[in-house]
Amino acid sequence: MKKLTLMITLLTSTIATDMVNAQSIQKKYESNPFTLVYDGAITKNEKGKVNIHPVKYKLNGIEIAANVYTPADYDPSKRYPAVVVAHPNGGIKEQTAGLYAQHLAEAGYITIAFDAAYQGASGGEPRHTDKPQYRTEDIHGAADFITQYPGVDANRLGVLGICGGGGYTLKAAQSDKRFKAVATLSMFNSGEVRRNGFQNSQLNTIPERIKQASDARAQEAAGGKILFSGVASITDEEIAKTSTDLYREGYEYYYRTHAHPNSTFLYTTSSLMDLMAWDATDEIELIDQPLLMMAGSKADTKYMTDEAFPKAVNAKNKELFLIEGATHIQTYWKPEYVDQAVSKLIGFYGKYLKP
Length: 355
Hints:
Elements: H1 2-30, E1 51-59, E2 62-70, E3 80-86, H2 96-106, E4 110-114, H3 132-146, E5 152-162, H4 164-175, E6 179-185, H5 190-196, H6 206-221, E7 228-229, H7 236-241, H8 245-257, E8 267-268, H9 272-275, E9 290-296, H10 302-308, E10 316-323, H11 330-333, H12 335-352
Parallel strand pairs: 3-4, 3-5, 5-6, 6-9, 9-10
Antiparallel strand pairs: 1-2, 2-4, 7-8
Helix pairs in contact: 3-4
């Protein structure tokens, strides 16, 4: 009886903790009129300051939701450099992509942070589809939109990809020469990880997992239930037991400190058919623009940046910049690491996006 009482008490405590977490999450995104969840986010548009402009545009028939950030004293009759910011896997424009977009706007750039098609506030069905060709097309589409935005100098366009967005940015930049300067932060090669497992931990199960993805697509095509991979929710206890920094800190970021209802770790299992046959570094020698790749020195994902960087043999004046002491997720939000990354980006874009 005592054991049962203890179990009930623990369960009640867990439920109560999850309810408190849910309430604090709700207050954070609801307290911002633009539902931004990063620290220092814009709460209102003011004359003479950096402003945010929620926009929507169509990409291959799908409505894309995005935020455009304009610099202080923005004048649409002038000409500004611009930067496209691609969000991490599981992320959305209101999180770290928005943070970096806002900081770059503070430095004089017009920036756009967008939600990938099928994800966030953008349209597309089935929800949470995460195919590399779509994510790459999202970046091209953001370039289409922002180069037509009032005041943007289309000849001074840069791109920043964060985490999974970094891998897709490497792919997009191979053929999209509108991007005159290419940067990645904490680059995550989604194809390599979905295929081989994180840190190559699932090499022995590749055929079985590809078969599961194929079966999931067959089930969808037959009108059956859509299957999902990833994590829909997680308890504090499960987070504490997660061994890798990437996933433990990632769960804390996405489900606790910077949570947003549009953000999720889920993706359709059928997406793995495309993901597992894809790699961010395939044809990377086609990148001939200036390239900056940044990663935390303590990031357990750093190996992916280390693999990609030397393969970009034709990138002009390429540079690998380590953010000393940072893990992968800490580059998303921790001020001392974000400041280092932003400072490096400002110098990089300032050099290669000159009038």
